[in-house]
Amino acid sequence: MVAVPDDFATENNVPDIGEIELLLDFAEQRDESATHQQLDRDHQVLASAQAEVNSLVGQDLGETVRANPKYQQESLMRLLQRIENAMTANRSNRRSSG
Fold this sequence. Notes:
Blueprint: H1 7-12, H2 17-29, H3 36-56, H4 62-66, H5 73-97
């Protein structure tokens, strides 16, 4: 599966929430049978996604961006919680893998 850049994100110079959600879907599907390298890579992706979403929280993004439901404060906070949950599961799987 290939992520197609979101025109909205590109035009408004904000992180692509759809792409972040897609990457998060992959990380959430990993289990303890994943290799340590896969889990390390997932951790790096999750940390990067967390930083990108954090950069949006509390920032004045303008009416055009905030009108998009994916960029509303409540949606961003739910996404951050989802990322945190995935990072917790990733840490647990990494400990189990070696």
